[in-house]
User: What shape does this take?
Amino acid sequence: MPQIVWDPAVMSVGHALIDEQHIKLLELLNNMSDSIATKADDKDFVKKVLQELCDYTVEHFNTEESLMDPEAYPEYDTHVSEHMECTQAVLDFLQAFSEKNEGDLREFSDFATNWVVSHVLGTDKALGRFLAGRPA
Amino acid sequence: MHRPPAEEATSHAFLGKWRQGLAAARVSFSTFILLAVLGSSLVMVSIVVWRTQAGSDDAGEEIAVRMLSLAGDHISLETDYFSLPIVQLRENLSAMPQATSKHNGFEHPMRNTFLEALQDIPHLYSLYLAFPDGGFYQGISLRNRPGLYQELKAPPEAMYGIRHISIIKGVPMQAWRFYDERKNVIRETELVKSTYDPRTRDWYKGAVAASGDFRTEPYVFTSLKNMGLTMSRYIPGQEPVVLALGVTLKSLSDFVADQRMGKASLVQIFTSSGKLVAYPDATKLLRKEVNAEGKEGLVTVHGKDVGDPLAAAMLKSFESGGGKALPAHEISVNGARYLTQIMPIRLLGADREFVGLAVPTTEFIGPLERAQREGLILVGLLSLAVITATIFAARTFARPLKHLTSEAARLSELDMAATPSMTSHIAEIDTLCCAMSVMRANFQVFGRYLPRSLMRNLHGGHLAHLGGQRREITLLFTDVEDFTVMSEKLDPMELMQMMSEYFQGVTEAILTSDGTLDKFIGDAVMAFWNAPNPNDKHIELACVAALRLQKATDELNARRESQGLPPMRTRVGIHTGEAVVGNIGTDERMDYTALGAAVNLASRLEALNKYYGTRILVSKRVRDGASGSFMFRSSDVVAPKGVAEAQVTFELVGAKPKSDYPDVAVPSKMLGFCSRWERAMTLYRTKEWARALDEFTALADLLPEDQLAKRYVRRVQRLLEGGQEDGWKAAVHFTEK
Assistant: This one.
């Protein structure tokens, strides 16, 4: 998978903090796919990169969810469900990869990248718009 | 002649098909009864009608012949009464010595005798004596002969007349004397020349030739210009004389007319050659004829020419019979049937004359035919009544039968809804109705012991034998917390009551989501989906069943708590895997159930709820299969006792927003909690235990009643304290159940 380049015109959701975190996330995803391509043999390195990615994802979702008011934000349910699904997919992969040494890293990397991009362009943008429309 | 094989085959095929069609024919009960009764009545009635018809026809004929015979006898008798006085008179008169006396003008010793005879015998027209010299002495009765008065120029009061022809100076001279009723002379004519010579007449010549008795054929009486016939006798002696007595054909015709049996019948007298002597309508008897000498005269017609087809038919019969007497036989004239008899008669001493009697058969058998007709109508009406009664009866029988039939059909479809029962006066049908009700009640009871889907499959003819098949199914187990302890404190009735109420909610949740309720094991319930009937949504349906039964139980427990009763908290385990599904046991006692490792795992999952403080634990397969509609939170990676491989387990939280199951949706505030929970779990799994502890602690604070959060707090605390790093695996192994 080629590296994703952050293009603010395309990927900005209109919220500074979220955008910042998205940039960082994409960077980690790019690292992941790069390490798969170049350093596949170094298991520990790969594990470390994976861990970083997972941890940051957790933090990012936390941030976004703390910005969402369950009562005010109409897309709250869908947005949170998506986060949860993604997290569970990550857990699935972790379980398979770490505990049983199964799991295709490349596949996971591709999945994660695709998921992030489509989530940012769709769900996160909607959040951005909502946040922009509300007084702080 | 042997038919070609192809032809034979076709005819066999046709016969076979016909026989097949007959074997498969179905007729309703009412129709059958109706046809049977109709058929047998028809046969019976036809036979009876045919026999009585034939019988009465024969009887009728017999009656007719006898009656005709009697009529014939009567006519003979009447003819005798007609003839006899005249014949007797001839005897008496000819025996009298005065018979041969010659008259002197109007005087004759037998004059008064003549007058008396005319008075006594109404049908005697005249009687006379003829002498060899041409003398003539005659008595005539004018009674009922109106034409005579004019002819003889008799006074209106005259009843009798005496004529004499005397030869005076060689010239025959005649004169008339007329008498009234009392035989008083009322007028006398003058002597005039007579043109009448008795010696030329047939009656005279015949008697003389016979030297005895003679009877003429019908001929024209000079005086009357009418026809009659005369019987005469030659009285020998020194001065022979011919005595004669005459009757008119009209008298004879009146006589035969009287002898008829009704106007439609015929009595006629005819000679052996068929010429009529008497016929009921005298006017038809005669016709004008020009004789050999060119003189116009009257003659009697032949029976064939009288203008009566009946008379003609009778004569035809007579001729074909050889011109002899004929016993009663039937002739047909213009479509009407007559019974005819021809008998010889001696009319005024003549032989070779016959009287024929023809009576329409309806005269005799009319009443009989009427009775027959009435009988037929009665039979017809009775048959109609019988048919109506049969239709009614058949319907009455058919109604309970139809009810029974539809009941039986419904039962065979396993439709056990009750219907109002029927009774019948027919013992067997009534018994059947009762038996059917009992059977239905039994089925209803049986049905409670069997899953409905299983029953329907049984009905379809499958599954009735031992054996099973491998299939992926979703299994669900439930159990009540601390049930044994609870049950020991209650009395049996209370316990049963409690269990009924509890199971009502649980089973309803399972059945309404098309689950197969396999068995109750004490307070536990085992159910599965995708067997016996396949169902694509088996995983989803099991999940919604679990959520619903928890909801129902929660409602029950709320009620129980308000009544001060302990709650019945339920644990649920769900797993999807391959199992052997089918009938296990023996032929006498079969159990439709599932066997295999998957069953075991589902049961263990249910038990694990105890340890984690969760309510519904499911395996990864279930989460993967139902994540489209349901939300799960990661529970643990665990290998329960007896399960080799560690299972990733989840807790079923509820239905996702906008799923098909809004009644069991996850509350909104739980969404945030669950999302955060997964993140905490990720930290835990990536061994970020410090951050994990923070998160789990926060979550435990958010939801104080969540046992799982507390457990993870303790677990991570221990991990932090214990310092296990490298070989750590998330999987937990249980050595006990």
Q: What stands out?
A: The mean pLDDT of chain A is 86. The radius of gyration of chain A is 16 Å. The interface with chain B takes residues 51, 54-55, 57-58, 61-62, 65, 70, 76-78, 80-81, 83-85, 87-88, 90-92, 94-95, 98-99 of chain A (CB under 8 Å). Residues 31 and 120 of chain A are 19 Å apart (CA to CA).
